[in-house]
Write a structure and sequence with these properties.
This protein has one domain (2-421): Orthogonal Bundle (Cytochrome p450). It contains 18 helices and 16 strands. The chain has helices spanning 2-5, 32-41, 74-81, 102-108, 119-130, 133-137, 140-155, 162-167, 169-178, 186-197, 209-232, 238-244, 254-267, 270-285, 287-294, 300-311, 342-345, 380-394; strands at residues 44-47, 51-56, 59-64, 68-71, 87-88, 159-161, 246-247, 250-251, 316-321, 325-327, 330-332, 337-341, 401-403, 408-409, 418-420, 422-425. Strands 1-4-12-9-5 form a five-stranded mixed beta sheet. It has a three-stranded antiparallel beta sheet with strand order 6-16-13. Strands 2-3 form a two-stranded antiparallel ribbon. The radius of gyration is 21 Å and the shape is globular. The protein binds protoporphyrin IX containing FE.
Length: 426
């Protein structure tokens, strides 16, 4: 990583017109005007992929994907999500960037998000047997306590960073409990997840394949030690259940356990962080929104779903066509890459009135931020719970909170992220 720090930004500036595939585009904010145009003119439109720089021990190389179909309307994203047998997660994985080698693809396929039925059904059944709504509800008191403690800690300081000191900390504390690790180790999760999800950002993964591989190796080693400890001496926690649970008379293998553990590290970390920081960003920059919240009573649950819609922490997931098909009237060929832009579907005027308006009382709110279909987010309840706890803890103090410096956004075409948001008490 050291040598990379001296390099200029990993990716070149995005070319015009707005390139929705380029990670650098999103450093300037989500290009909503371009998504508006796409929904209007080409709900399923072809997007050529930009050449992106990658670094490895073999040197610096450019990688360019073959291009993809961007599904941008609510209807098209739902259509893809509801047909997993036509739009596969396993064929080439669920991430926009293609796996580099057949070995990489095989490795990725051990991750729940990159599986299709029947393997997906088996592993998901095992995981849901321990990751039940009841088990998640049992975390509620701890989540509330963590949220309050975090607010108390930042209240003792004149200035702080709303992302690193607040938004990032809550999911890290919750995950440390969930993953059976000492809370003091939680910043390992922060670094791992930044390296993997922030792969394209020069400050985090830096497009460095070695950093990516090392992060996997380090996290797996840690997870394996957790599995061994919990199998030897199970505790009354989720991770012990996961380490020992059986489906059809078979436990998760060590590798399956590690893959799922790491999936939770990544899925439960950045996503919730960006939801919280995105919501705080809106509240700090929109006086009317702040006044509305502090005015007549609101349902926090309803507001949380509106923040999920407008922030859309995970902007897209990918599928691959298993056969020739038609999607919203567009012909898709077998093997084509199809990307579901939740971030666009969530602002589709055909489904949401005044879609660019934040309406904290919006109901119903059929946003797609947690996906849809067989891969629907397993952590949806937990993420909503964390966001609600943090909002309830922070809102009474909002009138005294203001930004004190520029907001720095993540260079990523996958998550809608903010890296830093300096704030202070007035
Ligand atoms: C605001 C926060 C979150 C957002 C926006 C989010 C979003 C998503 C989305 C869009 C998917 C669908 C993937 C696909 O269709 O390929 C997904 C899957 C998943 N999420 Fe979340 N997630 C969040 C929080 C969490 C948390 C807190 C956890 C757990 C601690 C979690 C665990 C998972 C898992 C395990 C899957 C894979 C499910 C499967 O493939 O069957 N997520 N999430």
């Amino acid at each position: 990583m050291g040598a990379l720090k001296d390099m200029p930004a990993t990716q070149s500036a995005p070319p015009a017109p707005v390139d929705i595939a380029h990670p650098a585009t999103y450093a300037g904010g989500v290009p909503h005007e371009e998504f508006d145009r796409r929904r209007r003119e080409e709900p399923v439109g072809w997007v050529p992929e930009p050449a992106l720089w990658r670094h490895s021990s073999a040197g610096r190389i450019q990688q360019r994907g073959a291009g993809f179909w961007a599904a941008t309307t609510h209807e098209a994203v739902v259509e893809v999500s509801r047909q997993p047998e036509v739009f596969s997660s396993a064929l080439r994985g669920a991430f926009l960037h293609d796996p580099r080698t057949p070995a990489d693809l095989e490795f990725m396929r051990q991750l729940l998000v990159n599986m299709d039925a029947p393997q997906h059904v088996r592993i998901r059944r095992l995981v849901t047997s321990v990751f039940t709504p009841r088990a998640v509800r049992s975390l509620a008191d701890t989540v509330t306590r963590h949220a309050r403690d975090l607010i108390e800690a930042v209240r003792r300081r004149d200035t702080f960073d709303a992302v690193t000191d607040l938004a990032a900390e809550l999911p890290l504390l919750v995950l440390a409990d969930l993953l059976g690790m000492p809370r003091g180790d939680r910043h390992l999760l922060y670094r791992w997840s930044n390296n993997l999800v922030g792969f394209d950002d020069p400050e985090y993964g830096g497009g460095d394949v070695e950093v990516y591989r090392q992060t996997f190796a380090e996290a797996f080693q840690y997870a394996l030690a957790v599995a061994v400890r919990r199998r030897a001496a199970p505790r009354d926690d989720l991770i012990s259940l996961l380490a020992t649970a059986e489906v059809d008379g078979r436990r998760l293998t060590d590798r399956e356990f590690c893959q799922f553990w790491l999936l939770l590290v990544v899925a439960g970390n950045e996503t919730t962080r960006h939801l919280i920081s995105g919501a705080l960003h809106l509240l700090l920059h929109d006086q009317a929104l702040r006044r509305r919240w502090l005015g007549a009573p609101l349902s926090t649950a309803t507001a949380v779903d509106e923040f999920l819609r407008v922030v859309t922490p995970i902007m897209q997931f990918r599928r691959t066509a298993t056969r020739d098909a038609t999607l919203a009237g567009t012909k898709i060929a077998e093997g084509d890459k199809v990307v579901m832009f939740y971030v666009s579907a969530n602002r589709d005027a055909a489904v949401f009135a005044d879609p660019h308006q934040v309406d904290l009382e919006r109901a119903p709110n059929p946003h797609l931020s947690f996906g849809m279909g067989p891969h629907f987010c397993l952590g949806a309840h937990l993420a909503r719970m964390e966001m609600a706890a943090l909002l309830d803890a922070v809102v009474p103090h909002l009138p005294r909170l203001a930004t004190t410096g520029p907001v720095v956004r993540l260079e990523s075409n996958f998550v809608n992220g903010i890296k830093s948001m300096p704030v202070g008490w007035t």
